[in-house]
Amino acid sequence: MDGKTPVLEVNGLCKDYPAFSLKNISFELEEGKITGFIGRNGAGKSTTLNSLLSFVHPDSGEIRFWGKNVSDAEIEIKQDIGFVSSGMSYYPNKKLKAVTKTTRSFYKRWDEQAYRNYMDEFGLDENKTFRQLSNGMQIKYALALALSHNAGLLILDEPTSGLDPVSREDLLDIFMSLCDRGITILFSTHITSDLDKCADNIIYIRDGRIVETASFGEFVDGYRLVEYVENELTPQQQALVVGRRRRRDKWTSLVRREDAVNFGGRAVEADIEAVMIHLESEGTR
């Protein structure tokens, strides 16, 4: 991270529930980049985000934003963070201008001109109620609020869930333009195909543990896909498989890039969705 203080630094984060635990979660965020936070439902993404925002209190570990410990400077830090989730719900029958008025009062550095600019940019009418907005417009309104107090970090929890492809594409364009302005984004999603377009880095969580952190290119390029019919692979080749899935009358197996030479010309590049699906298959080693 070229000597700069990380936007967010998480070290040894743990949280125990009766049926689930976060185990020693550690990672950093690079300034001005989009980091995709991926994992299947129940892997621990939302619990991690809730811990970062103090919605739940970790059992142990350290969380620092811009070098400041969240336990020492939570109110100050939250002035610089925007949180957007597909599950967010404002007063559904209140006009947006009423919601904005309340929100404005919480932030010392509220920028009214920035708010007006984002409302225009996103095509939002503050005389409408939250209920009258489409899912995509609701997310854009939440973004407008998050950005109007000069947040340097956006934490996004499944922001594109339930949106149509065009609306998702529009939001991804917005996220990338925000990063061009120096804003950092932590983007938790199970729609991994969204990250093909916009992610710079990847954090992969499984069963409450971080199993890989890498640049997007390094993560995807670390694997190859092999297609074959049942029982076609030799025992030596089968031992190199890290996950497999069936597709009609054939199978696809994921192998590490360095092992691809053992499959001749049959090993091809994989996208991030294929990598995650195969890594989550039964028997993954």
Question: Could you please describe the fold and organization of this structure?
Answer:
The protein has 285 residues and is an alpha/beta fold. Helix content is 30%, strand content 29%. It is built from ten helices and 14 strands. α4 (112-121) runs antiparallel to α5 (135-147). The radius of gyration is 21 Å and the shape is globular. The two termini are 30 Å apart.
Ordered list of secondary-structure elements with their pairings:
Layout (H helix, E strand, L loop, with lengths): L7 E9 L4 E9 L4 E5 L6 H8 L7 E6 L2 E2 L4 H5 L2 E5 L10 H9 L7 H10 L13 H13 L5 E5 L7 H16 L3 E5 L4 H6 L2 E6 L2 E7 H6 L1 E6 L6 H4 L2 E7 L2 E7 L10 E3 L2 H8 L6
Parallel strand pairs: 3-8, 3-9, 6-7, 7-8
Antiparallel strand pairs: 1-2, 1-4, 4-5, 9-10, 11-13, 11-14, 12-13
Helix pairs in contact: 4-5
